[in-house]
Amino acid sequence: MLSTDRQHALMDGLRAVAPMLPGVVPFGMMAGIAAIEAGMGPLAGFAMSVIVFAGASQLIMAQLWGDGALPLVILFTALLINLRMVMYSTSLAPYFGGLSFRGRSIIAYLLTDQAYALSITRFYGASRTDGSQENSLRWRFDYYVGIALTLWVVWLFATLAGIWLGANIPASWQVGFALPLVFLVLLVPVVRDRPSIVAALVGGSVAVLAHEAPYQMGLTIGGIAGIIAGVMAESLLEKREATAE
């Protein structure tokens, strides 16, 4: 039985993530539908949500699977998309110092964009308040789990709903066209400055031009080109601002 303080921390995390859940459900359903559309089958589609647990990567993996890409290409592309998780982990590490290997494994497995954003914001705010209970390792862990575990459970149920829906959609409906729309919706909020605009334009353009690349590598090549272009654009912008000063 969890102590009252631990229950409060878990509930704080659940309440923090609750407003995001309505947006997670349709995204999870689309991941399930995409798996069925790609011919992965219900079990494989659900297993992908359990093992990968990363929305954008799952959609890309399903698309590449359906296109007949090599397993190594699919894996490399998923890892490329999830490189940001390395930065998230580095940012969270100071707040979980001293945590057991088991605890760190739970945090790593459940790490998502939403879990990171909500947790780091709360942890940073609490760290500026001396003597706050929220500065304890136990509280941080429980708060994080309250957020991340809620997202995980909702994601799995949403994926199951999508798998069921996808398995019952007639093949003649061709709902696969919705995949690009999902990625466009994900793209819009992060295109906020010049480097991100450059990255989006270069990555998208290269992916289209490399569509006929061997082993379905077009998307991967586009992603790498977008990252390089974005980093170069940000570097040039910083140098220009430094010169101006």
Summed up, what is this model?
The chain is an all-alpha fold and 245 residues long. It is built from 12 helices and no strands. The longest helix has 31 residues, at 137-167.
Task: Tell me the fraction of residues in β-strands, as a range.
Answer: under 5%
Please report the number of helical segments: 12
Q: Write down the overall mean pLDDT.
A: 83
The helix/strand class is mainly alpha
Uncertain runs:
none
Annotation, overall tally of beta strands: 0
Q: For this entry, what is the oligomeric state of its chains?
A: single chain
Helices, strands, pairings?
Elements: H1 4-17, H2 21-37, H3 42-51, H4 55-66, H5 71-81, H6 84-92, H7 101-110, H8 113-127, H9 137-167, H10 178-190, H11 194-209, H12 218-244
Helix pairs in contact: 1-9, 2-3, 2-4, 2-9, 3-9, 4-5, 5-12, 6-8, 7-9, 8-9, 11-12
Walkthrough of the structure:
- The protein is flat, with a radius of gyration of 20 Å.
- It is mainly α and 245 residues long.
- Helix 2 crosses helix 3 (42-51) and helix 2 (21-37) packs parallel to helix 4 (55-66).
- It has 2 domains: 4-173, no CATH class; 191-245.
- The chain has helices spanning 4-17, 21-37, 42-51, 55-66, 71-81, 84-92, 101-110, 113-127, 137-167, 178-190, 194-209, 218-244.
- The protein has 12 helices and no strands.
